[in-house]
Every structure is written in structure tokens, then in C-alpha cells.
Write a structure and sequence with these properties.
heterodimer, A: alpha/beta, Rossmann fold, CBS-domain, four-stranded antiparallel β-sheet, B: mainly alpha, MetI-like fold
Chain lengths: 365, 236
């Protein structure tokens, strides 16, 4: 179900213009991210889709139909809505929260609760959490419940207003992965608001950069916005690291994965070796590095190791490979397979060679 | 004073008839209950309206404070002179004094409901009434009932004072005792009034425990303990 903004303006009585003549088409089944600094009208734009805010001029079309023709409450029941602090109902259990829209839409209680239980699983929450109350959940869990609640009525459109910005970075990344995984399965039309350009690039099929005063500065794919910012505002907003960020769109094909001497945690290293050795556990997962010339008394324990850098999963964009190499104490980025097993290493040098030889270039220019 | 109190309490005549303790306690509780019902019938809808629409809050807070500043005895006496009927005068006085705490509690309770929660409810397609009754009222219940509790304490005390214009209830012991220089009776009246206040307060506290949704209690307790109850992240 596509969404179209046609010359939409929102002007407040005091003269403030929140959104200025916005025209934008959100394609069916894609994630479109509205990104920009505070005061750029991104949240206002989002809230005009479900009539939480009415535009002063222009029209918003949902699936080709002017949304003003629908009763706001009915319209909203057909659009999933996720907000920053989840906004869970504290007096209802997790299941009760998730079942809200189905119940409003007149489903019977049993069917609604059954649907809610399914959705907990969909967003990766254990079923026993269903009986808990929101105050008994962590921030990340609350956000997942918020997503489940928005999905409950099987709405084809999902509006997400900075849904992950109140959780810590590690949890945020988990939630972003989860959203992409869900989207691959569900194919919703998602409009996502954030002020975080990294999040926009990670999640968006398309990114709309808005500037203060509610004007659309640029609309395109993330790679496009990074490589060819239309003006200084966009270039400034996507940031100084955009060359590095552009690597998120380059494949790592051609990077050679080299063998590395490994040593098993728990084994007794009887020889001293003059080079770094990658410590792995019994499953072959990397645990850290043993520095050159180190001696170990008895069995190798994790406390003998130097902590490793980030891990690069084979098949991911080249940005991860470079980061793994740069963050490794040994200068060797650890490459793992799907199951997390170490399969070799890459050096920054090799990665850069591949980047320089890439036909699409490095971004920026 | 203590021996006089003991004499008064141990006199079986004081426990019987229309002037006996059981009758006076019931009478007193009856005034409080009636005034409370009328006050709540006025204050709760008004508080819900102002809290939900956020309209008229300034007028409401201002007039609430003004009423609270009224001298109780003066008000009841004035109403008695106006209506020349002690029951009507006392009842109106009690209602006037019972309204502000309930109004303030209701308004504050609705207004304190987390903005995100209300926003989510609206965004999910709840209509105004559904939002009020399914979301705002259950969450505001601790503060609404807190207002009722305050009102009850005030009503018990004021009903005693209203005996000055001839109302029945426990206040009779105070004023009749004073008139007859029977300090045992005065003391007994004061103690009984205080006891009634404490018992009614306990009753409402129990009602509060029974009515406030479990999730709201957990949330309030969690906030008091600084931070959410659970922090560990369960990742599937």
C-alpha cells in the first residue's frame, strides 16, 4: 500500500511552518526513512499519515485514496503505530497490550489473545513474558512489545517515530536487525522517522532528508544520498564519515581470507611462538588473541587473552571487514561464518586494495 | 480528665438509644457518606473533563484553592443562617468542602497519565471515550482515590464541627459536653471522631488496593524504587 504526499504543508497559527510543500511517494512494501535535524518536520509529516495532525494544505493519499475520506479512528486501526518510548499501557499485560487493536476492531477475545501470543514470538520475545506488565520489562523488550502491538491487526502500513532512539546502542542494533528480518518476511510499507543518519542508512530502502523549516532536501536510496548529496546541507548532515559509511554498500567480493594460527582455549600451549595466535573455543568461535612470545602456565584461560576486535561475517558489506581489521589488536580482522565459527583473517591492506580497485569507487566524489 | 473519660465510657446509658455511641457513629458516617457521594458526583466528571480535554484547568485550580481557604465553621454557620435548617446547611457545607480534593485528585490523575501512553492510544485508533475509560481512568485511579481519601478525612472532621449549628453525629458529644462542662463526654467525642476517621481511611485504602490495576501498582512501585523492575534483556 503506497503513500503519497502531494504538496503537503503544515503551518501553525503562530506562523511556524513545520512542513513546507512536501511531495513524496513512499513505495509499497519498502522502508522509507524520514531523517533530519530537530525542527525539520519529520515527525509532523509522519503524524499526518494517520491524521494525528491535519495538514493546512495539500493531500495525503493512502493507496491512492485521500485519507480525509476515512474516519480517523478507523484509519488508525489500519495503520501500525510505534513511538519512541513505546507508550505501552501500564495497566494491561503484555498480551493485553498487543491485543489492543484486534479487540478495538471487534475480534473476539480468544482470537485476539492468540494473535497476540503469535506476535510475541514474531518479535522475538519469550511467550511467558505475555503475562507480565510493561513496568516489568527492559527498555528493549518494551520496544519489541510496541512493535508487536503495531503489527497485531496485520496493517499493511507501519509508522515508526524514533522507535529505537531511547534504548542503548547494543540493544538498538539488535532491534534494527530484528526489524529488517521482520520486513524481509512481512513486506510492510514502513515510514520510519529518525534523527540518526546511520540508522537511516541501515534501515532505509529510500531516505528522505529534511531540513529545518520542513523542506525536503533530498530523496533517494541511501547509497545515492551518501555518494551524491545534492547540497552542502545534505553533505553536512550525512557527515564527515560518509566515505567510510559508503562502504556499507560495497560488497567484499575479492577480499582474500587468509589462514591464521589458532589455539584452543583450555589446551596447554607448550611452545612459545613469535606471532599472534587466535584463541578459539571448542565450537571454533573466536574468544580473543594470544600475543606473540607469550608464555602460559598450564591451560590457556580466557584471562590470558587480549580482547578481540569486531567480527566480520562473511558475505556482509566490506565496511565490516575493514572495521574488523582496524579494531583487531593483531591487525588481523577475524572472519566468521554464519554460525559464528572463525574461518580466517583479513588485513586492512588487502581490504583497501579491493576498495580502490572497485568499479563504483569509494563514495564521496 | 482520664477518670471522667472512663466514667463516661463505662456508663451503659451512653451506649444506648438515639444519643448512644453506635447511633451517633452511624449518623456521623451517614453524613460523610452522603456528602461524599454528592461531592464525587460533581467532582469526578468535572475532573475527568478538565483532565482529558485540558480545558479550564486554570479556573479549576484557582477555585479549588479558594474553596479550600474558606473557614469551615464560618461557612457552615453562614449556610445555617441562610437556610435555617442544620441538616441542609451542614450537607451543603460538607459537599462544598468535599469537592476540591476529589476534583484535584481526578484532574491531576488524568493529567499525569504519560503523554506517550495517550498518544499511542490515539494512534491505535481509540476514540475519545475509549481512551478516557480504558486508558486514562484506570491509570489515574490511584490519584483519584487519593483525592477521595483526603475528602473523607476532611468530611469526618467537618461533620463534627457542624454539630455547632445543631447537626447530629459525634460532634454532639463535643458541643453538648462543653455546654454541660462534661469533659469526659468531650474527650470521648474527640476520640471517637478520630477513630472513625482512621477506620474510614483504612477502608478506602483497602478499596484502593482492590481497585487499582496490578500493572499500575507495579509501575508506581518501580518508579519509587528508581528505575524499571526488570533490566535484563531477553534476546531470542
Amino acid at each position: 500500500m503506497g503513500i503519497e504526499f502531494r504538496g503537503v504543508t503544515k503551518k501553525y497559527p503562530d506562523g511556524t511552518v513545520a512542513v513546507d510543500d512536501l511531495s513524496l511517494t513512499v513505495e509499497d512494501g519498502t522502508i522509507t526513512v524520514l531523517v533530519g535535524p530537530s525542527g525539520c518536520g519529520k515527525t509532523t509529516s509522519l503524524r499526518m499519515i494517520n491524521r494525528m495532525i491535519e495538514p493546512t494544505a495539500g493531500t495525503v493519499l493512502l493507496d491512492g485514496q485521500d485519507i480525509r475520506e476515512s474516519d480517523p479512528a478507523v484509519l488508525r486501526r489500519g495503520i501500525g503505530y510505534v513511538i519512541q518510548h513505546a507508550g505501552l499501557f501500564p495497566h494491561r499485560t503484555v498480551l493485553g497490550n498487543v491485543a489492543t487493536v484486534p479487540l478495538l476492531s471487534g475480534w473476539d477475545r480468544r482470537k485476539a489473545r492468540q494473535r497476540a501470543a503469535e506476535l510475541l514470538e514474531t518479535v522475538g520475545l519469550p511467550a511467558e513474558l505475555g503475562r507480565r506488565y510493561p513496568a516489568q520489562l527492559s527498555g528493549g523488550q518494551q520496544q519489541r512489545v510496541g512493535v508487536a502491538r503495531a503489527l497485531a491487526a496485520d496493517a499493511p502500513v507501519l509508522l515508526m517515530d524514533e522507535p529505537f532512539s531511547a534504548v542503548d546502542p547494543v540493544v538498538r542494533q539488535g532491534l534494527q536487525d530484528e526489524l529488517l528480518r521482520l520486513q524481509a518476511r512481512l513486506g510492510k510499507t514502513i515510514v520510519f522517522v529518525t534523527h540518526d543518519i546511520d540508522e537511516a542508512i541501515r534501515l532505509g530502502d529510500k531516505v528522505a532528508v529534511l531540513r529545518v523549516g520542513g523542506r525536503l532536501a533530498q530523496y533517494g536510496t541511501p547509497a545515492d544520498v551518501l555518494r551524491h548529496p545534492v547540497d552542502d546541507f545534505v553533505a553536512g548532515f550525512v557527515g564527515k564519515d560518509r566515505g567510510y559509511r559508503g562502504l556499507s554498500f560495497l560488497s567484499a567480493e575479492g577480499v582474500r581470507v587468509e589462514d591464521v594460527p589458532t589455539i584452543r582455549v583450555g589446551s596447554a600451549p607448550d611452545v612459545v611462538e613469535p606471532h599472534w595466535r587466535l584463541a578459539v573455543n571448542d565450537e571454533g568461535e573466536p574468544r580473543g588473541w594470544l600475543p606473540p612470545d607469550s608464555t602460559v602456565d598450564g591451560e590457556l584461560a580466557e584471562s590470558d587473552l587480549v580482547a578481540g576486535g569486531s567480527l566480520y561475517r562473511q558475505g556482509d558489506p566490506i565496511r565490516g571487514a575493514l572495521d574488523a581489521a582496524l579494531s583487531s589488536p593483531a591487525g588481523l580482522g577475524v572472519v566468521v561464518d554464519e554460525g559464528g565459527k572463525a574461518i580466517g583473517v583479513v588485513t586492512a591492506h588487502q581490504v583497501l586494495d579491493v576498495i580502490e580497485g572497485h568499479p563504483e569507487g569509494v563514495g564521496g566524489a | 480528665m482520664i477518670p471522667e473519660l472512663v466514667d463516661w465510657v463505662s456508663d451503659p446509658a451512653n451506649w444506648q438509644g438515639t444519643d448512644g455511641v453506635p447511633a451517633r457513629v452511624l449518623q456521623h458516617a451517614g453524613y460523610v457518606a452522603l456528602a461524599l457521594l454528592i461531592a464525587a458526583a460533581i467532582a469526578v466528571p468535572l475532573g475527568l473533563f478538565v483532565g482529558h480535554t485540558r480545558r479550564g484547568a486554570v479556573v479549576l485550580v484557582g477555585s479549588g484553592n479558594a474553596i479550600r481557604a474558606l473557614p469551615t465553621l464560618g461557612l457552615v454557620t453562614f449556610l445555617f443562617l441562610l437556610f435555617t435548617d442544620s441538616f441542609v446547611a451542614a450537607l451543603i457545607g460538607l459537599v462544598v468542602l468535599g469537592v476540591p480534593p476529589i476534583l484535584a485528585g481526578t484532574y491531576a490523575g488524568i493529567q499525569a497519565v504519560d503523554h506517550d501512553v495517550v498518544d499511542a492510544a490515539e494512534g491505535m485508533g481509540m476514540r475519545g471515550g475509549q481512551r478516557l475509560w480504558r486508558i486514562e481512568v484506570p491509570i489515574a485511579l490511584p490519584l483519584i482515590l487519593g483525592g477521595v481519601r483526603n475528602a473523607v478525612l476532611q468530611l469526618v472532621a467537618t461533620a463534627a464541627v457542624a454539630a455547632y449549628v445543631g447537626l447530629g453525629g459525634l460532634g454532639r458529644y463535643l458541643f453538648d459536653g462543653l455546654a454541660n462542662f462534661d469533659y469526659g463526654e468531650v474527650t470521648a467525642g474527640a476520640i471517637l471522631t478520630a477513630l472513625l476517621a482512621v477506620i474510614l481511611d483504612l477502608v478506602i485504602a483497602a478499596v484502593q488496593r482492590a481497585l487499582v490495576p496490578k500493572g499500575v501498582r507495579i509501575a508506581t512501585a518501580g518508579r519509587r524504587a528508581a528505575g524499571p523492575a526488570a533490566t535484563e534483556e531477553v534476546v531470542a
